[in-house]
């Protein structure tokens, strides 16, 4: 899986107005519920408009576009009315994800240690324990790669505090 910072772009054209552009995360579950519901209503209005445009006359086209405008205004109202709760929602979800990442990193370190222990002992087939040549970094590719992984894991930047 690759981490993306791009998101998904949406544009809504209102007759006599500008295009209203939004970029939402691909994982819509991260959007606060009220905002997500308002955005889903906007998408539904736009889809309904697309189905009727040019098929039922100009009055129907204007009516469909008015419904998109109404849904867009509702989205803006929800966003403005829930600013503090949205900030709290994102701060709480960020803290949860940071905790999960830190726990996963600790689990990765523990798993890496097990890999290292077994790889170094496997390189000492006739002896007991770890071959000192392998331990000092002069061993095979597997151990060298594990050492590089350990170094990378040890030098990871900690999860930053959320800018508020």
UniProtKB/TrEMBL annotation:
Entry protein name: Uncharacterized protein
Highest taxon, organism lineage: Bacteria
């Amino acid at each position: 899986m690759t981490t993306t910072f791009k998101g998904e772009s949406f544009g809504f054209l209102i007759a006599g107005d500008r295009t209203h552009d939004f970029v939402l995360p691909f994982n819509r579950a991260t959007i606060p519920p009220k905002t997500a519901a308002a955005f889903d209503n906007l998408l539904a209005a736009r889809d309904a408009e697309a189905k009727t445009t040019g098929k039922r006359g100009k009055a129907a086209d204007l009516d469909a576009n008015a419904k998109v405008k109404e849904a867009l205004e509702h989205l803006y109202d929800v966003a403005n009315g829930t600013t503090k709760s949205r900030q709290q929602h994102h701060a709480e979800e960020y803290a949860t994800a940071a905790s999960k990442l830190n726990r996963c990193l600790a689990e990765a370190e523990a798993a890496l240690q097990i890999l290292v222990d077994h790889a170094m002992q496997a390189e000492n087939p006739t002896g007991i324990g770890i071959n000192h040549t392998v331990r000092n970094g002069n061993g095979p590719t597997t151990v060298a790669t594990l050492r590089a992984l350990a170094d990378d894991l040890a030098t990871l930047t900690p999860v930053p505090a959320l800018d508020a």
